[in-house]
Amino acid sequence: xxxxxxxxxxxxxxxxxxxxxxxVREDDGFTLVDTGMSGSASAILQxxxxxxxxxxxxxxxxxHIDHVxxxxxxxxxxxxxxxxxxxxxxxxxxxxxxLDPAEPQTPLRGGYPTCSxxxxxxxxxxxxxxxxEAIATPGHTPGHLAFFDHRDGTLIAGDAYSTKAGISTxxxxxxLFPFPAMATWNRETATHSAETLLxxxxxxxxxxxxxxxxxxxxxxxxxxxxxKRQLK
Length: 232
What we know:
This protein is of the alpha/beta class. The chain contains 7 helices and 15 strands. The relative contact order is 0.15. The strands form 3 sheets. It has a 7-stranded mixed sheet with strand order 1-2-3-4-5-6-7. Strands 8-9-10-11-14-15 form a 6-stranded mixed sheet, with no helix packed on it. A two-stranded antiparallel ribbon has the order 12-13. It has one domain (2-231): 4-Layer Sandwich (Metallo-beta-lactamase, Chain A).
């Protein structure tokens, strides 16, 4: 697993060149954002150990298999760590894949594994977890969240954006790396969420797939324009 540090607080952990999770340094240790594919737990724990701090909490941007795949394995080895996800996507962890009546009735896409781990905290828009604020960004999944670090303006966007093979919003198909788009539940909602994140004026954009971008506003604007073109 490749370890890349960005600024004073963010460490990117990359597996197979395309799948990211993140350690966020806090005063009491690390917050882990997403858990990667199945089989990632040992490498994540080794990375935290090599960086000299324990993992105190696990935040999940959404319930797709490449983001919660190692949740149960990590929870077994970190039983005291807080586990947090949106209340909406928490239902997917239990195997409940029903859509709410008020949600767009487009089919769910991507893999939603059933996990034995139960969250210790259910998150809503605006909730704070240490230095991070949860931002509701539905579209890729119904309960997708992004996290904004108020210390330095870093935005951990999950799959609301992808930067692999060029920047795109979660619902925009890029032939060189089509998987985030293929797994996006509702493209119109995802595009609206991408616009919401741009309004936060992040200084750094960290995503589930692809490199982290510094000063990303112009690139995010291009991605939104591309998404709107595909929606026409």
